[in-house]
Amino acid sequence: MTWGELFRRTAEHAIAYRAWVGQAPVGRPADAAALRAAFGGTLNKRGTDPVKVLDELVHAAQGGIVATTGPRFFGFVVGGSLRSATAAEILAVAWDQNAFNGLLAPAAVAAEQAAGTWLKELLGIPDTASVGFVTGGQAANTVGLAAARHQVLAQLGWDVETDGLGGAPRVPVLASAERHATIDRALRLLGFGTAGLTQVAADSNGAIDIDALTRALPDGPAIVCLQAGNVNTGACDNLRAACDLVHERGGWVHVDGAFGLWAAASPQLRELVDGIELADSWACDGHKWLNVPYDSGFAFCSRPQVHAAAVSYTAAYLVGTGEMAAAADYTLESSRRARGFATWAALRELGSDGVAELIERCCRLARRFADKLRDAGLEVANDVVLNQVLVSFGDDERTERVIDAIQRDGTCWMGATTWHGRRLMRISVSSAATTDSDVDKSVAAILRCNSGAR
Ligand SMILES: *Cc1c(COP(=O)(O)O)cnc(C)c1O
Q1: Is there a contact between 294 and 287 (Cβ–Cβ < 8 Å)?
Q2: What's the CA-to-centroid distance between 367 and ligand 1, angstroms?
Q3: Are 97 and 338 in contact (CB under 8 A)?
Q4: 270 CB burial (10 A radius; 0-12, 13-18, 19+)
Q5: Which residues are annotated as modified residue N6-(pyridoxal phosphate)lysine in the UniProt record (predicted)?
Q6: How far apart are CA 226 and CA 232, in angstroms?
Q7: Coil, strand or helix: which one is 131?
Q8: Could you say which of 58, 279, 329, 361 would form a disulfide bridge with 255 (CB–CB 3.0 to 4.6 Å)?
Q9: Which residues of 286-296 are buried (b: 16+ CB within 10 A; e: fewer)?
Q10: Which residue numbers in the chain have pLDDT < 50?
Q11: Omega within 30 of 0 (cis) for the link into 295
Q12: pTM score
């Protein structure tokens, strides 16, 4: 066995998959017991030839690979994966770089720095902000809120990194009632707990209610979590108004923009995230709307020193000082995969015009879904401002039955959600592979399942 033999075979498997995935049935329920059996058994005592291991892996995984990277997967907000980004990811693994710092992985760190600069330009984040390439939105929210915790407590004369939270002044934390659940987990991990969180009401499309926020804000500094891109509706909070309110009182604004922050990259949609540059920290994903493979998230912070003080584990004084600036000082990981290559490649493949076009196309296709389903007499339950569409098929039980039928049908895949007390089909358009014809085929399948449902 040579590397050539193994890698060529790997490439053949990958090529065959990518050629097939566009026609593949999407998300038919997997047989979990069969998969467990295929992967299970006792661990062999002797080793196995790598080519054989690969063939065994491909065989075992059959029936358990979901076509999320194909053009008709509209569940969650997952995105697909661009060609260059996928290839770059494969190389990053082959190179096996540890992107801890510039000494250990100089190319990986340089790629992150270049891609980080481009990301800030595209997303409307000040170019002085720091960026950590993290695992995803969850990690980016955790890093952003750790920076918030550092800064707000420092203003109150408390060094949380040294003294912990026991005996610390209480920091008010506010977030929209429609925040993403990863905000709650970040608050738990950071020792704030969730019970102390002040929930602020949202408006009819799921953006934070600015009047309610004004009433809820305490006089002193608070941490306020805003959102660009409600996971159900796509709604974006009024960032400018909220940032002004919070900053007047010396507080910190963290924006969870896992997918919605990408609106900033489009001249047509930028208005939705007007004021984005005013925030103090931002979370965004590469593996959703930028169509970079997993795992790829970005944690930005307006104050690099605060960012590093909150999460670095080398001395803060090393940070920002020349080549030793550790990429890992802005993330929660120590040893880490060279994540920047794939993002760098995706941005090069698309260019800034291509990023804008991708975001605009997905939003246009979401409106196409909404228009066609509405024309067929169905109810679209949200204002389709971005890439998310919520559909009702009657009462909750009937909606569940249609969603179940579409998931079994295999033409496309959509999930269910509960929003404002109702069960709804949730359609997310975030893949670069999706075309008008994919939407039309999917609408036809939905209507077929709807008329088949009682
Ligand atoms: C997906 C999502 C997250 C979590 O991101 P992961 O990449 O899954 O960790 C957080 N917030 C919002 C609004 C999201 O859509």
Answers
A1: yes
A2: 22
A3: yes
A4: middle
A5: 288
A6: 15
A7: strand
A8: 279
A9: bbbbbbbbbbb
A10: 321
A11: yes
A12: 0.96
